[in-house]
């Protein structure tokens, strides 16, 4: 059975890039349903439910109509309350769902009247919508901020396939240095450059003429590794160095890691003739406590 979105189109699970640390990996609804306990009565194909349902979701109590839970056929909640599966009850007789109930109210509000959560709750509600396989809600959420902005950001980061590895390298180096020095923070040098041109703008006309006249053997002189811990670049996009720096600091913050950065100059390594590497160097300060 295909899930139908609120636009009348078949709903498809969102494609994940691996760079979304706060998103739950999509799981096929069939696989989730298989994890439910079948009704203990084989003669009963559909167990009756009351019109008003009392729920205990991870210790948080809710009351809603049965029709609300069954609003969209091809969802986890509709399957749970179809009568084909056993649902445990708590000591007070409420149907129990072993899930954090912090955002279940947002799920119910959408099922009731299509209401979307406030922006600061979108990411978390999106995770819950994935778990309950509510396709129409996922469609709506992915058209709002911050999820739409995250798609645009990921399109930029896809230009740097080594981005995640470099981010891990920053964390590992900073942690190792802090532990070695028994320090509260650690500093490391990071090169972030958009263009391969190892020159300043006013030198570009001179460099272009040299580039076409130099021997093939000279090319290696312009290919070097700056004396830094981690290097990002080059890339081709409108997004600039400051945009990538924002991504690095933001992604570290998502992991609870406090990071500050400041430009401390350029590489300035001699390349050939009077040309020097002008890639900017940034000092990152990672504070651990």
CATH class of the largest domain: Alpha Beta
CATH topology of the largest domain: Potassium Channel Kv1.1, Chain A
Main-sheet strand order equals 7-6-11-8
Number of helices: 10
Number of domains: 2
The major beta sheet can be summarized as: 4 strands, mixed
What is the ordering of alpha helices and beta strands? HEEEHHEEHHHHHEHEHEEEE
Which keywords apply here?
single chain, 289 residues, alpha+beta, Potassium Channel Kv1.1, Chain A, four-stranded mixed β-sheet, three-stranded mixed β-sheet, 10 helices, 18% strand, cytoplasm, BTB/POZ domain-containing protein KCTD7, SKP1/BTB/POZ_sf
Description of the structure:
The chain is built from ten helices and eleven strands. 33% of the residues lie in helices and 18% in strands. The two termini are 51 Å apart. The chain has two domains: 29-156, Potassium Channel Kv1.1, Chain A; 163-287, no CATH class. The strands form four sheets. It has a four-stranded mixed sheet, covered by helices on one side. The chain has a three-stranded mixed sheet with strand order 3-2-5. The protein is α+β, with helices and mostly antiparallel strands and 289 residues long. It is found in: Cell membrane; Cytoplasm, Cytosol.
Chart the SSEs and their pairings:
Blueprint (H helix, E strand, L loop, with lengths): L28 H6 L2 E2 L13 E6 L2 E6 H4 L6 H5 L4 E2 L8 E3 L6 H10 L8 H10 L3 H7 L5 H11 L5 H19 L3 E8 L11 H10 L16 E3 L8 H14 L3 E9 L3 E3 L2 E2 L3 E8 L2
Helix pairs in contact: 5-6
């Amino acid at each position: 059975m295909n899930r139908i979105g609120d636009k009348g189109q078949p709903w498809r699970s969102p494609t994940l890039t691996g760079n979304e640390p706060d998103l739950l990996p999509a799981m096929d609804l069939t696989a989730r349903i298989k994890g439910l306990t079948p009704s203990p009565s084989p003669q009963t194909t559909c167990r009756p439910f009351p019109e008003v349902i009392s729920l205990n979701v991870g210790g948080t109590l809710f009351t809603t109509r049965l029709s609300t839970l069954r609003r969209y056929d091809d969802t986890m909640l509709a399957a749970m309350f179809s009568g084909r599966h056993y649902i445990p009850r708590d000591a007070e007789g409420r149907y129990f769902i072993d899930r954090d109930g912090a955002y279940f109210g947002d799920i119910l509000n959408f099922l009731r009247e299509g209401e979307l959560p406030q922006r600061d709750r979108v990411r978390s509600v999106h995770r819950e919508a994935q778990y309950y396989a509510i396709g129409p809600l996922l469609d709506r959420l992915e058209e709002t901020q911050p999820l739409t902005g995250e798609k645009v950001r990921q399109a930029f980061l896809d230009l740097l396939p080594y981005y995640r590895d470099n981010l891990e390298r920053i964390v590992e180096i900073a942690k190792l240095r802090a532990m070695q020095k028994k320090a509260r923070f650690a500093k490391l040098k990071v090169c972030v450059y958009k263009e391969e041109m190892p020159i300043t703008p006013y030198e570009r006309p001179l460099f272009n003429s040299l580039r076409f006249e130099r021997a093939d053997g000279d090319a290696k002189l312009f290919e070097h590794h700056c004396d830094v811990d981690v290097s990002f670049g080059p890339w081709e996009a409108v997004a600039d160095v400051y945009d990538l720096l924002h991504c690095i600091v933001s992604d570290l913050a998502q992991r609870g890691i406090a990071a500050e950065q400041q430009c401390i100059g350029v590489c300035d390594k001699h390349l050939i003739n009077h040309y020097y590497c002008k890639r900017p160097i940034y000092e990152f300060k990672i504070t651990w406590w």
